[in-house]
Amino acid sequence: MTILPDLHDSPAPGRAGPAAAKAPPNKRDTLRRIAEAARREFAAKGLADARIDDIAVAAGVTKQLIYHYFRSKEELFACVLDESSAQVMEALLALELDSLPPREALRALLDAMLLPYQDRELRALAQEGIRYHETHTTPRNSFTGMAPQLNGMMRATLARGVASGDFRADVDPDLLLAMAALATTSAYVNRYTVATLAGLDVAGDAGAATWRRFAVAFVLSAVERERSTLDPLTRAAQ
């Protein structure tokens, strides 16, 4: 994980001072260690209970050095969130869907949406991030900045499926993308509901595999012109 250079290669305004002289020669490595330690701390404790002192110890730097680059704990948290979002979005945008048949292209996109949430730290950050973004705005948001490209991928995939006769023509691609994101990933940030209503623990390998099969089949069923029997809406793999 790397902190975005245009945000963090310079110290926070008003924070330059003696701490700057203590920064190691390899500034980028220092920022990387701070980011990785912060990610673990925020994922384990949440924003409210995370401590800059503990992040500093884990990163092998002083607390003063962290505040040299970040105005507050909240700013550091926002940067960790943004970098995590950027990594997820970059992986999605790197998919080469045009070479796949429409149905398999949509499946590949849905599978890729699910994959990052098998990481426990990312799931915890996602939960905390949802709460944070409800009440905060950030100067940079990779998710909103890169979302139009993801919308474009969904539109192109859906259009190819309509042209080939695989998909219905009466599906809004942007609404489909939003529903697909919620249908696939929400189980990982709201495990309690899934466990209570379906008796499924998506934190375990078996539960995650069951949810992945069902969620992907569910979204595919919404767009298929003729419902395929290849992906039944059941718990068991066929």
From TrEMBL:
Gene Ontology MF annotations: DNA binding
DNA-binding region range list: 51-70
InterPro entries: Homeodomain-like_sf, HTH-type_TetR-like_transc_reg, HTH_TetR, NicS_C, Tet_transcr_reg_TetR-rel_C_sf
Top-level taxonomic group: Bacteria
UniProt xrefs under Pfam families: TetR_C_29, TetR_N
Region of interest (Disordered), residue spans: 1-27
HTH tetR-type domain sequence ranges: 28-88
Keyword field contains DNA-binding: yes
Gene3D superfamilies attached to this UniProt entry: Tetracycline Repressor, domain 2
Low complexity bias (residue ranges): 11-24
Alphabetical keyword list: DNA-binding
Protein name from the UniProt record: AcrR family transcriptional regulator
Naturally occurring in which organism (per UniProt): Pseudoduganella umbonata
